[in-house]
């Protein structure tokens, strides 16, 4: 059996030391809970055959190698190989939560650096060591706002990622908290006049707004509304699904966000069919004692040397238990490490260049696909690396036709927005090549000529 | 160990000094020593009405968190602002400078539910 | 090798020292209105070499399972096989977008399905959801299911969750996040949940009783069948915290014990690397009557059903079902920590049922071996057969010499071992929870026991020496009070005030 070092002699000596005749004596259980049936588990394979089996399974994921314009909360970006050669080092990979600070200084410092990066990117003062993903980060951010205000309703824009809104609903159902939605305006951003009306009621603990929003559109709370937002006592939560945008756009702090939640997958974390990803939460100093999860602090050791340590642990589940800020224990530390190394390698110049290249490609894509009759931009508004294309017929049919030509054209928006069932969310990043854009255009041209039910 | 003679005590290791219909509340030497280095104190808001023995705040140390219960009922009239920047004051002077909050008492006879210095001293001796 | 404190990445680098991984002569202003663009980005630019050196040095100041013995009780720090990482990193898995159509993701869906079926059978549950990202996340989802289940049955008096005083802190925390009231049950003198004590707190308000078996003292709850019956008798549900599943595989199943809900920690029992504190994965298992409440989406198979489906590569089609009738809804952005699903499945393939049974048997053997040797010089409050972990107490040592559990832990660091879990569970004073795991050899266990004995002997002879530990680690004991009183949680760029 693999990974088990015990020889017959070892076992005999150990049993002798314990004073039992066989392992059965140690593992026996009362008759009423003994195994009744033999569990049915996959059959064991030697390691060489394991590789073969998984290669076979992997080869059946044809979408992984197709030309793809999918985004919608998970983004394909260039990941320098240096990231994995560092992150996969055994000490980083196989260490656990740094409860013994003296032998975890490396990891603790890396997390301190992650916390700093998130603060610098969002413009806020504090960030935690990570949460599971963007959707759960939003849920945790809302919980912070509920505790801070004592109010029991929250406001969320319909332009926030539909999966994030659905997860928030799951969490809020557990807490008997009501969620109201801000509608979509004609140009694809949040209807801010509805926000003004809602805030006047002063009953909302938080308002969650995403930019770039689910449609890729850059949104901002209008200047003239910001004082009213501040007066309302409603905590503004900024949501970020495409973290790369933080390198290009005005920070959430700049328009008054007190909490920023989001997804860090864009920073070097593999698509991996949805996970593991890495959520982040940042906030102003005022919310320090409410922020969930782990925090790494910088201090001194007893000899005056700079040292890092998990701090403010009294807020967490292992001490505070039912009064904890959250139940979170294991987080996404290794993915946060990957993201930190990505940010270190890219640097400010690299991130700006990358963001600019995303913009170039997405705008090139938009220009090319709208050149053909029958396809038009659904929304007229500034966008980052994704946009909504109205295809003039059922989006699902167009996507199926593209798929048969070896292209994943994007996301059928009818899946989440019934009124947009003739629209596709298309994404281009710095990894999208001109050839891929050419191929998509050619395919669409063909499809436009052929009736869509063919 | 003898406890200050002019105070009354609760089972949750709080002390109270009653002065007419007002009172000052803190935690005892035993409490501060059990908690260890105190890092943060969450005190009730001014004007809050609190019932005897109800939860009124939280004391956080590096390794533990303890709910703060009020030994008597009343209205919170003052809180110790110094603890904001110097929570260690509770460790250094639990019976003096490290006081937590003051109350205008609702019902002075609630004192009868509290422990005398001698009874409390015995409680502490048993706990150790 | 020099062991100097490492400067922060922000204290290195020079503006313009770019690596140019993505070449672009485009500008942001070409595509966005000027007022939407941020004016500064105070992040450092460093060469790849500088970054590689920086993080290499940080890794060298970090202790992992790969470095040495890591007997952290309740965490199951077993060897993380490298083949698992190799398969998870196959491009067909790594590059697969979560919104890929089902028909073009059949390999991924099959992997999820196979893992789900194996776990269901191994632990005696009707079905598993692979959605939760961690054990605590699985707990939360389970309690949301319980809440909805009672609401659907018009049973709105169910407000209480019962948790033993030995429970992991996530249990009561998760209960609070669902709006439940938590009742803590005192363990009996045998360290277990007493059936009579439990009966006294059970009632019409009981929603869920959360337990783990073996419990956090490493002891098997031998009255578990009676306990689950008692909870079911009042109409409550039983939840199994799977943190200690490493003791049970092929030996007993939570489903057979009467548990209705459970989570597993793939990063404990199933060798997903702990990665400094995550990412984990916390699959959620349910009994038949709760199957309709699982979080969405659920992986289904079309075509040939039954046990053959998980191995039959012809004529089956796997798909994601979002129409689960009474689902609590999704609990995360996408479908699972999929890369970890692949790793766990690879581990199952390496072992099969026989291998997994050996894993549990040898985990229990190792723990008992260490226990009988340690109890010769350190108090073990429950001196009976343990399962995969046991607890020792430094309470007597503290009374005698002043040396506490934390001092012993730090002295172990000096000797090249990671410390056991300290001060948990809360009911044992000066607690050290030791879980060797099955991947450790007898020699490693012997050297650990020798080191521990040496420390205890030293404590009696020269306690101050133990209390000064660690002295051979990159830093000495850290001022945690200062860290908490004056939180310094991030670096600030020089131009802006702190």
The CATH topology of the largest domain in chain A comes to Aspartate Aminotransferase, domain 2
Which class best fits the helix and strand makeup of chain C? alpha/beta
- Please state the overall shape of chain A, judged from the principal axes of the Cα atoms: globular
Tell me the name of the CATH class of the largest domain in chain C: Alpha Beta
For the biggest β-sheet of chain A, the strand order reads: 2-8-7-6-5-3-4
Helical coverage of chain A, percent range: 25-40%
Write down how many β-strands of chain C occur, each being a DSSP E stretch of 2 or more residues: 12
Helix and strand succession of chain C? Answer: HHHHEHEHEHEHEHEEEEHEHHEEHHH
By DSSP (H or I, 4+ residues per run), the number of helices of chain A equals 14
Average pLDDT of chain C works out at 93
State the major sheet of chain A.
7 strands, mixed
* Low-confidence blocks of residues of chain C: 305-315
Spans where pLDDT lies below 50 across 5 or more residues of chain A: none
- Our count of helices of chain C gives 15
The CATH homologous superfamily of the largest domain in chain C is called Type I PLP-dependent aspartate aminotransferase-like (Major domain)
Gyration radius from CA atoms of chain A, angstroms: 26 Å
Task: Write up what this structure looks like.
The complex is a heterotrimer of chains A (454), B (128) and C (498). Chain A is of the alpha/beta class and 454 residues long. Chain A is 37% helix and 14% strand. The longest helix of chain A has 38 residues, at 333-370. Chain A starts with 7 loop residues before the first helix and ends in a 5-residue tail after the last helix. The relative contact order of chain B is 0.26. In chain B, strand 6 (55-61) and strand 7 (65-69) form a beta hairpin. Chain B is of the alpha+beta class and 128 residues long. Chain B is globular and about 35 Å long. Chain B has helices spanning 29-35, 88-92, 117-127, and strands at residues 8-9, 14-19, 22-27, 38-42, 49-50, 55-61, 65-69, 74-79, 101-105. The longest helix of chain B is centred in the C-terminal third of the chain and has 11 residues, at 117-127. A 6-stranded antiparallel beta sheet of chain B has the order 1-2-3-9-8-5. A 3-stranded antiparallel beta sheet of chain B has the order 4-6-7. Chain C is of the alpha/beta class. Helix content of chain C is 35%, strand content 10%. Chain C is built from 15 helices and 12 strands. In chain C, strands 1-7-6-5-4-2-3 form a 7-stranded mixed beta sheet, with helices on both faces. Chain C has a 3-stranded antiparallel beta sheet with strand order 10-12-11. A two-stranded antiparallel ribbon of chain C has the order 8-9. In chain C, helix 5 (135-152) packs across helix 6. The two termini of chain C are 34 Å apart. Chains in contact: A-B, A-C, B-C.
């Amino acid at each position: 059996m693999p990974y088990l070092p015990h020889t017959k002699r070892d076992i005999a000596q150990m049993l002798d030391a314990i004073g039992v005749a066989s392992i059965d004596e140690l593992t026996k259980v009362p008759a009423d809970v003994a195994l009744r049936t033999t569990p049915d588990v996959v059959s064991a394979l030697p390691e060489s055959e394991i590789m073969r089996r998984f290669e076979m399974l992997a080869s059946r994921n044809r979408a992984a190698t197709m030309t793809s314009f999918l985004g919608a909360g998970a983004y394909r970006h260039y990941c320098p190989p240096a990231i994995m050669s560092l992150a996969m080092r055994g000490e980083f990979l196989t260490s656990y939560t740094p409860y013994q600070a003296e032998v975890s200084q490396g990891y603790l410092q890396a997390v301190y650096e992650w916390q700093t990066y998130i603060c610098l990117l969002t413009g806020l003062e504090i960030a935690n060591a990570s949460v599971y993903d963007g959707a759960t980060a939003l849920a945790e951010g809302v919980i912070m706002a509920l505790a801070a205000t004592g109010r029991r309703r929250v406001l969320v824009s319909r332009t926030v990622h539909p999966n994030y809104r659905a997860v928030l609903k799951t969490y809020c159902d557990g807490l008997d908290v009501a969620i109201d939605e801000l509608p979509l305006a004609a140009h694809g951003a949040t209807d801010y006049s509805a926000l003004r009306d809602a805030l006047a009621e002063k009953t909302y603990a938080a308002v969650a707004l995403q930019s770039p929003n689910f449609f890729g559109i850059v949104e901002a709370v209008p200047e003239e509304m910001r004082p009213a937002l501040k007066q309302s006592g409603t905590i503004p939560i900024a949501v970020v699904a495409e973290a790369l945008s933080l390198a290009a756009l005005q920070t959430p702090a700049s328009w008054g966000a007190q909490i920023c939640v989001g997804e860090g997958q864009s920073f070097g974390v593999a698509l991996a069919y949805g996970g593991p990803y890495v959520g982040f939460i940042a906030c102003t100093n005022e919310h320090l004692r409410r922020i969930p999860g782990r925090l790494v602090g910088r201090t001194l050791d007893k000899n005056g040397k700079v040292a890092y340590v998990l701090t403010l642990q009294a807020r967490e589940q292992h001490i505070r238990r039912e009064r904890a800020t959250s139940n979170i224990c294991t987080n996404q530390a290794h993915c946060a490490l990957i993201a930190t190394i990505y940010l270190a390698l890219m640097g400010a110049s690299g991130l700006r260049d990358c963001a600019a290249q995303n913009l170039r490609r997405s705008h090139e894509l938009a220009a090319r696909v709208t050149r053909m009759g029958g396809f038009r931009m659904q929304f007229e508004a500034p966008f980052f690396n994704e946009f909504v294309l109205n295809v003039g017929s059922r989006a699902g049919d167009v996507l199926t036709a593209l798929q048969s030509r070896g292209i994943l054209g994007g996301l059928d928006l009818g899946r989440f927005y019934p009124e947009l069932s003739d629209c596709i969310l298309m994404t281009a990043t710095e990894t999208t090549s001109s050839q891929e854009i050419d191929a998509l255009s050619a395919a669409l041209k063909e499809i436009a000529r052929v009736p869509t039910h063919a | 160990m003898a406890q200050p003679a002019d105070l009354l005590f609760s089972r949750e290791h709080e002390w109270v000094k009653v002065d007419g219909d007002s009172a000052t509340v803190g935690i005892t030497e035993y409490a501060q020593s059990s908690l260890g280095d105190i890092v943060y104190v969450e005190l009730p808001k001014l004007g809050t009405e609190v019932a005897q023995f109800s939860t009124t705040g939280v004391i956080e140390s590096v390794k533990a968190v303890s709910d703060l219960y009020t030994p008597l009922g009343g209205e919170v009239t003052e809180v110790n602002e110094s603890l904001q920047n110097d929570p260690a004051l509770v460790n250094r002077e639990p019976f003096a400078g490290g006081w937590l909050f003051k109350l205008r008492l609702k019902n002075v006879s609630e004192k009868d539910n509290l422990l005398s210095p001698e009874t409390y001293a015995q409680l502490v001796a048993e706990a150790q | 090798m020099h062991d100097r404190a490492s400067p922060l990445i922000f204290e290195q680098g020079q503006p313009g020292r770019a690596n140019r991984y993505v070449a672009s002569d485009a500008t942001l202003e070409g595509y966005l209105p000027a007022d939407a663009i941020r004016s500064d980005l105070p992040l450092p630019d460093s060469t790849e070499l500088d970054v590689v050196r920086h993080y290499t040095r940080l890794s060298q100041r970090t202790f992992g399972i790969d470095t040495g013995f890591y007997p952290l009780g309740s965490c199951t720090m077993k060897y993380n096989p490298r083949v698992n990482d190799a398969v998870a990193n196959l491009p067909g898995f790594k590059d697969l977008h979560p919104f890929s159509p089902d028909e073009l993701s059949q390999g991924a869906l099959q992997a999820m399905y196979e893992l789900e079926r194996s776990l269901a059978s191994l632990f005696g549950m009707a079905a598993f959801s692979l959605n939760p990202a961690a054990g605590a996340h699985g707990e939360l989802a389970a309690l949301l299911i319980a809440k909805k289940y009672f609401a659907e049955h018009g049973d709105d008096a169910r407000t209480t969750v019962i948790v033993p005083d030995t429970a992991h802190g996530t249990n009561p925390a998760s209960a609070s996040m669902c709006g439940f009231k938590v009742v803590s049950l005192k363990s009996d003198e045998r360290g277990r949940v007493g059936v009579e004590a439990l009966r006294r707190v059970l009632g019409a308000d009981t929603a869920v009783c959360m337990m783990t078996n073996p419990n956090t003292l490493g002891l098997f709850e031998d009255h578990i069948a009676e306990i689950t019956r008692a909870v079911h008798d009042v109409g409550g549900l039983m939840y199994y915290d799977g943190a200690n599943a490493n003791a049970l595989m092929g030996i007993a199943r939570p489903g057979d014990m009467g548990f209705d809900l459970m989570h597993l920690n793939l990063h404990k029992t199933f060798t997903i690397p702990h990665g400094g504190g995550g990412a984990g994965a916390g699959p959620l298992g349910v009994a038949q009557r709760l199957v309709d409440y699982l979080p969405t989406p659920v992986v289904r198979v079309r075509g040939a059903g039954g046990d053959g489906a998980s191995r039959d590569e012809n004529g089956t089609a796997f798909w994601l079902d979002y129409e689960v009738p009474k689902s609590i809804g999704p609990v995360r952005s996408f479908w699972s920590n999929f890369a970890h699903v692949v790793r766990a499945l690879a581990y199952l393939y390496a072992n099969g049922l026989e291998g997994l049974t050996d894993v549990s048997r040898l985990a229990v053997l190792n723990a008992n071996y260490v226990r009988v040797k340690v109890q010769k010089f350190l108090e073990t409050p429950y001196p009976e057969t343990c399962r995969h972990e046991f607890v020792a107490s430094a309470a007597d040592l503290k009374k005698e010499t002043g040396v506490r559990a934390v001092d012993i832990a730090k002295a172990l660091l000096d000797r090249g071992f990671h410390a056991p879990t300290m001060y948990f569970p809360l009911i044992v004073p000066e607690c050290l929870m030791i879980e060797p795991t099955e991947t450790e050899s007898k020699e490693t266990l012997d050297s650990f026991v020798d080191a521990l004995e040496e420390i205890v002997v030293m404590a009696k002879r020269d306690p101050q020496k133990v209390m000064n530990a660690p002295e051979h680690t990159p830093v000495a004991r850290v001022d945690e009070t200062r860290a908490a009183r004056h939180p310094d949680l991030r670096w600030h760029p020089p131009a802006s005030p702190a």
